[in-house]
Amino acid sequence: MAAELTGSRLQRLVEQVGRRFVSGVEDFGYSAALLAESLYWIVFGPWQKQHVRLHAVFAEMMNIGVLAIPVLAILAFANGAMMAMQGIYTLRDFGAESQVVVGIATSVTREFGVLITGIVVAGRSGSAIAARIGTMQMAQEIDALRVMGVPPVRYLVAPVLLAMLVMMPVLTILSDSMAIVGGGVLSVMELHIDIGTYFERILAALEPADIWQGLTKSLVFGVLITLVATSNGFSASGGAEGLGRATTRSVVLCISAIVVADMIFTFFLII
Amino acid sequence: MAFPVEEKQGFSVVMLDGEVDLNRSPDARKVILTCLKKMKHVMVDLSAVEYIDSSGVASLVEGFQYARSNNLEFGLIGVSESAMSVLRLARLDQVFRIYVSLDERLAHGS
Amino acid sequence: MATLAEQAVPSVIEVRDLVTYYGTQKILDQVSLDVADGEIMVIMGGSGSGKSTLLRYLLGLHLPDAGSVRLFGRDISGLSGREWMELRRKMGVSFQGGALFNSMTVGENVRMPLREHTRLDENTMRIMSRMKLEVVNLAGYENLMPAQLSGGMVKRAALARALVMDPRLLFFDEPSAGLDPVVAADLDNLILRIRDAMQVSIVVVTHELESAFKIADRITVLDRGRILMTGSVEEVRNSDNQRVRNLLSRTSEDVPVNAEEYMQRLTEGAD
User: Fold this and answer.
1) Hey, are the CB atoms on C99 and A49 less than 8 Å from each other?
2) What local confidence, expressed as pLDDT, does residue C253 receive?
3) Inter-chain contact C135–B57, Cβ cutoff 8 Å?
4) CB distance from C127 to chain B under 8 Å?
5) Which residue among A181, B77, C6, C170 is least packed, with the fewest CB closer than 10 Å?
């Protein structure tokens, strides 16, 4: 195929790749600046009469965290149950099906509990935040904030960031617990052990480091979702259609960012 | 107190001065409401006021409302033309009791 | 080197040789403009004339690429965050679409600048916001959401919000756009009434001739990024500049064709 590329086509391809790369670097830089400015207002805001409003943080905690609990609980439970099922059938061939408990304990706390949390929050809030900020951008509400002397990052991004940093670990613990319970229900049915024994084995298999690994990741995911969603909102343009595009893009990028970050994390932590 | 109050002929006369703006109107509000809470009739003297913004006018409105619900008298005296135009914009010139001076108010009788 | 006469009526806005780019495209070219204390300056021009861009620079939403913008005698290019805040408290803006915050009631919208910038008593803030709603004839609409208002009411609510801090400088972006003639005329009268009562300087950006002639003390005509003329209503009406005359009589002008460039534009990028 490459041979078919004429000189000018190749040139155009290279140009396109280059442009994508540059805009990617630009996006990354923009997100980094958003993070820096949010942290600035959180830490130094009170000295400049620019407090990050607490009631806004609570409202975000409600939207991002509390309202996500039902769907997250169900998904985590189902995921734990599925892992138990897959584990039992795979390990049965080796006669090691009782070891499934160890597998559930470590993989849920290190990996899947936080990953499901990240994906649920990205799907719910990644789109909602981008849509809200995008709407405000198009209606000149962001400009209105700026001319009123209210820094939009302080008003719109910092509360989301704070709420994420609080709620993501909380949701992750919830998700871990529900997945373990889900695995427990399956284990009780298939392995004929009682639930008390199951939890004993889970606790025996778990180390604090496993849980810390999940919680650390949850903080990173929270920051990523905040930055991707808000920056997509701020850069939205082009009417209703553009808003739809920004929202979709936000969710896709949030989930991609989470998965990539997870991969990098796991790679470095396992080695 | 940031603004002086003089007791004259049964009235507490609150003397506002200079610029009654966002920074100073909370003080004006406090002085006016303090007088009213002592169940005194109040006249607010605006003759030394160079500029009054809407936070200042809002403080006057609050005082007037408090006076009305407690059967006290509340009036303005020495209202300059610039202060008057601020009142007029919000049609408050038709609401407040406005006198040239305390003497004019006294001439009206009670 | 200001003469005594110039000092007597200080300029609230001074723009000198402003040059701006959008990407590589020059949008404003050598624009110079003064707005005196207490005057109504109308910036007029067709779409694409650069008038909206000029407004964004006057609002300090962008910083000049070349030339300078001074507000209340201060060059906006070298201001610290705190100095900006001081300036912003003296400025009010009524955006084209109102830019009211959709998640707040009308009253909360009007109170927002007070809440962000002052420590006034809650009662005082409520009275102040209601006074401004009285001024714009929206008494009693305090508890409605912006979505429940008509177009003209949204603009008046936005004006109440712009007025709530008693600004010294007020900006209107296309005040009559999207309004029926009667409502638009009401708004023009309101603008005049506010100037007389509050001695505020007003900058209006519009393409509506009728409205411009009615409210302006002086008019600046902008065309393709350059200032064609600045003068009193009479001077603009009687101007013998062909482009100004075209704008007044609403005839469009054929852009002279450069054959070479035209062919280039049509065929550029074709294989």
Assistant:
1) no
2) 58
3) no
4) yes
5) C6
Could you tell me if A75 and A112 are in contact, meaning their C-beta atoms sit under 8 angstroms apart? no
Q: What domains sit in chain B, N to C, each tagged with a CATH number?
A: 5-107 (3.30.750.24)
Q: Count other C-beta atoms under 10 Å from residue A158's C-beta.
A: 30
CA distance A110 to A94: 25
For residue C224, give Cα distances in angstroms to C26, C30, C47, C48, C204.
10, 12, 9, 7, 18
Nearest residue of C to residue A140 by CA position?
A: C99
Of A198, A200, A190, A207, nearest to A82 by C-alpha is: A190
A144/C95 touch (CB, cutoff 8 Å), yes or no: yes
Considering only the beta carbons, identify the residue of C121, C165, C199 that sits closest to B26: C121
The pLDDT tens digits for C65-123 are: 899 999 998 899 888 888 888 889 899 999 998 899 998 999 999 999 998 888 888 99
Q: What is the DSSP letter of B83?
A: H
One DSSP character per residue, chain A reads -GGG--HHHHHHHHHHHHHHHHHHHHHHHHHHHHHHHHHHHHHHGGGGT-PPPHHHHHHHHHHHTGGGHHHHHHHHHHHHHHHHHHHHHHHHTTT-GGGHHHHHHHHIIIIIHHHHHHHHHIIIIIHHHHHHHHHHHHTTHHHHHHHTT--HIIIIIHHHHHHHHHHHHHHHHHHHHHHHHHHHHHHHHHH---HHHHHHHHHHH--HHHHHHHHHHHHHHHHHHHHHHHHHHHT--SHHHHHHHHHHHHHHHHHHHHHHHHHHHHHHHH-
At residue C30, the 3 state secondary structure works out as strand
Closest CB to C95 among A49, A140, A149: A140
Report whether A246 contacts A236 (CB < 8 A): yes
Q: Which string of b and e fits A79-107 if b means at least 16 CB within 10 Å?
A: bbbebbbebbeeeeeeeebeebbbbbbbb
**Of A51, A53, A147, A237, which to mutate for an interface test with C (greatest number of C Cβ within 10 Å)?**
A147
**Strand residue runs (E) in chain C:** 11-22, 25-36, 40-44, 66-71, 74-75, 91-94, 169-173, 201-206, 218-223, 226-232
pLDDT at A271: 64
Nearest to C99 among A49, A141, A150 (CB): A141
Q: Give the pLDDT of residue C252.
A: 57
Residues of C in contact with B85 (CB under 8 A): 196-198
Query: pLDDT tens for residues A7-26?
Result: 678 888 888 898 888 888 88
For residue B2, pLDDT over 90 is answered with no
Over residues A209-226, the pLDDT tens digits come to: 899 999 999 999 999 999
Question: What does the block give as tokens for C101?
Answer: 């915050």
Determine, for residues B25 and C124 on separate chains, whether the beta-carbon distance falls below 8 Å.
yes
Distance CA A68, CA A79 (A): 16
| Cut 0.90: pTM above it | no
Given pLDDT bands bounded at 50, 70 and 90, which one contains residue A3? low
Measure the CA angle with vertex C24, ends C21 and C28; round to 5°.
25
Cβ atoms of A235 and A247 closer than 8 Å: no
